[in-house]
């Protein structure tokens, strides 16, 4: 029986980092095998990166359950509601733009560790916040860590795996944002059930501290990106890290000899924000940032304030002006259950995205998803023309379609594209800038959504968001760069 084997060019010839990552076995008669199994180190990197996305979904969406309790404890106004909703998102914006870009200067691994230290520190402080303004400060700090994670988690995965698996593995990790959203809602519900107290929100945030410490320890034991090391001219270090990354039993490859492309040697001279707007990178910057901004306008507004919209539709919004603890908690439990049911479609959509990203392509899925989001928002907007069961049915159908299509399309693909379309030496900066642009949309929505709900009503607000989704589809089509199956070393060339 033929056994698969691999063939490797003579070491003296040298190969690129991606050549080593993309190499697949060949049967004895010369028939190639479609893929090689990932090593233990590659899976470790993937799992620890997925954990970061899980924590983002957990904390951001848990805020939707915690908010009524926080509002009661600190006597918050509608304006202060908006500040709480926007604080962590503003932190993500700043973290993605500032800390995320540091991965291009100091390496992927260091920032992978630093972001988790920041996350744990501010999460512990958040759970003990003594006042409203300290609460905002600590939420911002948690957001800084999550913002750094946007580019860093993507890069540590995408720069350590084969090109033909990059899409599905990056998105499979990103799917843990949806898992975190579900778990965050569930934890909020369970804690409220067993601890029906205004201060229960503190336990919600504290529940992530110990898991965070476990992930932090694990991140000390991963390899540095050989792509980044090679781009910095540290070829011998890149070869050593590649051997650790691809360590198998039996050992293969037995030696690593890298051939670094000439343009890498001076890459460190062009790592500043202006580089993203030079002619060779401008199209990538527009594609990575503008659709993501438009997508986050609706995704975070719907995600965070679904409980509020549901409670209003069911007629339970009377608790928003009630200061009876039992009323507030009962309403919060009801909204948490409804939001959790709708959020299930986030996970379903992400599973579909994982299955299709490397087959259908990023651009077609993003365009289709934007159209689906617009359709879902329009269906939900029609609910204002009805009362009772029909009103609730249209809200559920509309929001469930929106959640499904956003994770098949723009919520998944914008994240994926942002970490792929830039050259290695500014990949962290480019992905961080795109994430920051997206969070500008999220901050705007989180702050203005409760105000606009009161001032212009649900229907007009949903019309506006449907329009931004259609605009996102057009921008994606106009500035498209398809990265499916392409080597990261070819990006920006």
TrEMBL record:
Residues 45-484 form the Major facilitator superfamily (MFS) profile domain. GO terms for cellular component: membrane. Belongs to the major facilitator superfamily. Sugar transporter (TC 2.A.1.1) family. Keywords: Membrane, Transmembrane, Transmembrane helix, Transport. It comes from the Bacteria. SUPFAM superfamilies: MFS general substrate transporter. This is Putative MFS family arabinose efflux permease. It comes from Aquabacter spiritensis. It is found in: Membrane. It is a multi-pass membrane protein. The chain crosses the membrane at residues 45-71, 83-103, 110-127, 133-157, 169-191, 203-222, 334-356, 363-382, 388-408, 429-454, 460-477. The keyword Transport applies. GO terms for molecular function: transmembrane transporter activity.
């Amino acid at each position: 029986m033929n056994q698969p084997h691999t063939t490797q060019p003579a070491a003296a010839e040298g190969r690129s980092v991606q050549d080593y990552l993309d190499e697949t076995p060949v049967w004895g008669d010369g028939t190639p095998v479609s893929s090689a199994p990932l090593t233990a180190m590659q899976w470790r990197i993937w799992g620890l990166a997925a954990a970061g996305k899980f924590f983002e979904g957990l904390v951001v969406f848990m805020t939707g359950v915690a908010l009524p309790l926080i509002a009661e404890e600190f006597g918050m106004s509608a304006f202060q509601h908006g500040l709480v909703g926007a604080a962590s998102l503003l932190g993500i914006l700043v973290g993605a733009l500032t800390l995320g870009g540091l991965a291009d200067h100091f390496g992927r691994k260091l920032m992978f560790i630093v972001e988790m230290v920041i996350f744990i520190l501010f999460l512990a402080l958040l759970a003990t916040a003594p006042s409203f303004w300290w609460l905002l400060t600590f939420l911002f700090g948690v957001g800084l860590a999550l913002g750094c994670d946007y580019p860093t988690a993507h890069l540590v995965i995408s720069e350590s795996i084969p090109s033909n698996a990059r899409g599905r593995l990056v998105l499979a990790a990103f799917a843990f944002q949806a898992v975190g959203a579900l778990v965050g809602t569930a934890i909020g519900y369970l804690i409220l059930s067993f601890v029906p107290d205004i201060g229960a929100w503190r336990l919600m945030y504290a529940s992530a501290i110990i898991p965070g410490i476990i992930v932090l320890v694990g991140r000390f034991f991963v390899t540095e990106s050989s792509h980044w090391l090679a781009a910095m001219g540290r070829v011998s270090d890149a070869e050593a890290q590649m051997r650790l990354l691809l360590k198998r039993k039996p050992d293969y490859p037995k030696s690593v000899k890298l051939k670094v492309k000439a343009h890498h040697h001076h890459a460190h001279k062009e790592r500043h924000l202006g580089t993203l707007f030079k002619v060779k990178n401008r199209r990538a910057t527009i594609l990575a940032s503008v659709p993501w901004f438009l997508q986050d306008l609706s995704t975070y507004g719907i995600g965070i304030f679904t409980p509020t919209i549901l409670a209003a539709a069911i007629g339970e919004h009377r608790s928003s002006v009630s200061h009876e603890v039992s009323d507030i908690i009962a309403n919060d439990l009801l909204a948490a259950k409804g939001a959790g049911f709708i959020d299930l479609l986030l996970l379903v959509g992400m599973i579909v995205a994982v299955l299709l990203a490397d087959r259908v392509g990023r651009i077609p899925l993003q365009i289709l998803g934007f159209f689906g989001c617009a359709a879902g928002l329009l269906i939900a907007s029609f609910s204002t023309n009805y009362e009772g069961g029909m009103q609730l049915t249209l809200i559920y159908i509309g929001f469930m379609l929106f959640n499904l299509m956003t994770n098949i399309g723009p919520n998944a693909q914008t994240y994926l594209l942002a970490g792929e379309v830039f050259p290695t030496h500014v990949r962290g900066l480019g992905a961080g800038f795109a994430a920051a642009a997206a969070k500008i949309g999220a901050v705007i929505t989180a702050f203005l959504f409760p105000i606009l709900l009161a001032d212009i009503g649900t229907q007009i607000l949903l019309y506006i968001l449907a329009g931004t989704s259609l605009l996102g589809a057009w921008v994606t089509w106009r500035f498209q760069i398809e990265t499916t199956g392409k080597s990261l070393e070819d990006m920006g060339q």
